[in-house]
Design goal:
The protein is an alpha/beta fold. Helices cover 39% and strands 22% of the residues. The chain has seven helices and seven strands, in the order αββαββααβαββαα. The strands form two sheets. It has a four-stranded mixed beta sheet with strand order 1-7-6-5. A three-stranded mixed beta sheet has the order 2-3-4. The longest helix has 11 residues.
């Protein structure tokens, strides 16, 4: 059985909820990623901030990214998956919530992220086609 841990990208990093969006953008640039899990003071997942969030929900609204924190911009319940979950559970979580990135948690700690690129490397063409159809379907 292929698990989330088998297909995830390792080396994912949190950003604390008190950090500003300009720092999040710098970290995204350093890590060459478009999203960062946001952690509370206990290093528990409390959201995800994306490069698009920074642009659309901060800069385009006339706010200063050096004054807005990651915790202020995250919204909704963050989705995640246990590292031992099978690929079917990963696909169901991503498809049912129409998300493109999924943090992987082990022993209540971040151990990786699963993105569309990770799925593309591990799914058959038919599985990938079905995934894209469900995630990108209009609501």
């Amino acid at each position: 059985m292929t698990t989330a841990k088998d297909i995830m990208h390792t080396g994912a990093r949190w950003i604390p909820e008190h950090e500003t969006l300009d720092r999040a953008a710098q970290l995204m640039r350093e890590l060459d990623v478009g999203a960062l899990p946001v952690a509370d003071a206990n290093e528990r997942l409390c959201g995800i901030v994306t490069d698009r969030d920074i642009v659309v929900r901060c800069v385009a609204m006339g706010h200063d990214p050096s004054k807005v924190t990651c915790g202020e911009i995250t919204q909704g319940t963050p989705r995640w998956i246990e590292s031992g979950a099978d690929v079917g559970a990963v696909l169901e979580e991503m498809q049912s919530h129409q998300i493109r990135r999924l943090p992987v948690i082990e022993d209540k700690r971040l151990v990786g992220m699963i993105s569309e690129a990770d799925l593309a490397q591990h799914l058959s063409d038919e599985e990938l086609k079905a995934f894209c159809a469900r995630v990108y379907a209009s609501s």
